[in-house]
Amino acid sequence: MKRIFSHATVFICFLLFNINVLAQSHDTTYITNTNFGDIEDVIDNAADGDIIQFNPDKEIAFPRALYIKQKITIRGLNGRQKDADDMDKPNEKDKYSLLIIESEGVTIENFVLTGYYDADREDRLIDEKYKKRKKKNPKVKLKRIAKNNPYEKHKHALINVSAGGFTIQNGILNNSLKDGIMINPNPEISQHINGGHIKNITGYVNHKDVISIGGNGANGLVKNLVVENITCRNSKDKGAVEVSDGTRNTTVRNVNAYFSPYAIDIQDHYNPKDDKEKRKEKEFGTNRTVIIENVYAYECEYGLKTANHDLKSINKSKGHSNLSIDSLTAIRCAFPIQISNTEGVKIRNVCIEDGEPETEDLYIFNPKNPRISLKNCQDKIILENINIKDADNLYTGKDLKVNNCTDSKELRKTKITHNDCAK
């Protein structure tokens, strides 16, 4: 009897093992053509766990957005938006994104995505207006004006994410009219976005952010995100990473930004002129526990900035809090660090090297700018290992400007060294 029981047990275990293996095995579909309709059918009919493998050497023209509604992996996609004049009729929902992720657990990897933003064309279109401004004020250097772009009504992110648990890695994002990747809750999908990992992403000449993380204030949060190894080159109106409007536990590390408005921006979009309903939503769009590590900004207007309102006074509850910055280098930046309306700020291991930007018309240079500005930052504030080097002896402004902060007098006494920054 023991022998029979032993054989039966082994057989049952064998069946369970194979059932488990079958349950974990997923189909891989290889895309061999570039017909968008065929690709749409493959994506729409994919099952959770499937892998869609593209040929990265074949560029695919996207006439509209591709919706991802299953927990799948997309690998090797090389996609390009058609010019706005050739696009399908505008759809308010997709806003001409290439990929719209509406399922949790999606993976996008090893990709190249390109939009139709033409920075040179925009510069030509605004040139006349710039010349008029220059004629009135010869000191004007800011040529970056976005409002005259003819594609403004079609603005989009190349990848739009509205569900959590995602992985987006090993990608290049080019010429987006809006952001490269936008993380934003969609109430029709889920109130909050919880969990996600973005890494090894490079953005070239995007109009706005390479990575934009944005909550919906009182109506939806973005929580527990990790963003790392991001490079931003020549963004026109924004920068590498934005954290905004309702986030919790966000980690951003290893960010490099060159010739862009900023490397990191943390902000809310509260506007006292908005209607009552929108104000109510935005006044709870606080960003809490944001960890920033290892940032390098070269010839950017800002290294790190916050555009925060004093939401604690507005919502009578809680405001922006717990911002930690460790290891930030800013070379030839007009405002290396500017922080306002945030509780619990910690700034460690900063190196700033002053100098007027070598790139023409990058930003308005003002030698009176403070290198580090803290305004209305309450609770315990930490400033440690701050180094500022005025390489060209251009600056007359303060190294550190502190207004209405906890222990403002003591903060102004922070020891600052004046050595070269490590290259």
What does this structure look like?
By secondary structure, this protein is of the alpha/beta class. It has a single domain (61-417), classed as Pectate Lyase C-like (3 Solenoid). The chain has helices at residues 2-24, 36-44, 119-136, 276-282, 311-315, 408-412; strands spanning 28-30, 51-53, 60-62, 66-68, 73-75, 78-81, 99-101, 107-114, 159-161, 166-174, 181-183, 193-204, 211-214, 222-233, 239-244, 247-258, 262-267, 287-298, 302-307, 320-331, 335-340, 342-354, 372-375, 382-390, 400-403, 416-417. The strands form 2 sheets. The chain has a 15-stranded parallel β-sheet that branches. The N and C termini lie far apart (76 Å). Residues 1-6, 9-25, 86-94 and 142-148 have low confidence and may be disordered.
Topology readout:
Blueprint: H1 2-24, E1 28-30, H2 36-44, E2 51-53, E3 60-62, E4 66-68, E5 73-75, E6 78-81, E7 99-101, E8 107-114, H3 119-136, E9 159-161, E10 166-174, E11 181-183, E12 193-204, E13 211-214, E14 222-233, E15 239-244, E16 247-258, E17 262-267, H4 276-282, E18 287-298, E19 302-307, H5 311-315, E20 320-331, E21 335-340, E22 342-354, E23 372-375, E24 382-390, E25 400-403, H6 408-412, E26 416-417
Parallel strand pairs: 1-2, 2-5, 3-6, 4-7, 5-8, 6-8, 7-9, 8-10, 9-11, 10-12, 11-13, 12-14, 13-15, 14-16, 15-17, 16-18, 17-19, 18-20, 19-21, 20-22, 21-23, 22-24, 23-25, 24-26
